[in-house]
Write a structure and sequence with these properties.
82 residues, four-stranded antiparallel β-sheet, mainly beta
C-alpha cells in the first residue's frame, strides 16, 4: 500500500550534511513543532513559535487539513486547505 502523507516538512540546519524531510505516517496524521530561541541573557525560550498541522475527518471521508501558527503571546494564524 502506498503511503500518502497529508503534510510534508523539509528542514535544513547549519552543520548538518543532509536535509531533514518527513511527514505524518498516515493520511489523517498531524504534527506539532516548537521553535525555541536563545534570549539576550543566554537563556532559551522554547515557545517563540509553535506550528501544528492536523486533519479533521468528517463522515469518515472528507479531510479538512489545517495548519496553526502560534506566535507572539497567543496570536494565531490559520491556514486551511482549499
Amino acid at each position: 500500500m502506498k503511503n500518502v502523507r497529508n503534510f510534508w516538512i523539509k528542514l535544513k540546519i547549519d552543520g548538518r550534511e543532509t536535509m531533514i524531510e518527513t511527514g505524518p505516517r498516515s493520511k489523517d496524521g498531524g504534527f506539532e513543532m516548537t521553535i525555541g530561541m536563545r534570549d539576550k541573557n543566554g537563556g532559551v525560550s522554547e515557545n517563540k513559535l509553535k506550528i501544528n498541522g492536523f486533519a479533521e475527518v468528517i463522515n469518515d471521508k472528507k479531510r479538512d487539513l489545517r495548519i496553526e501558527v502560534d506566535y507572539k503571546d497567543d496570536n494565531t494564524l490559520y491556514y486551511e486547505n482549499e
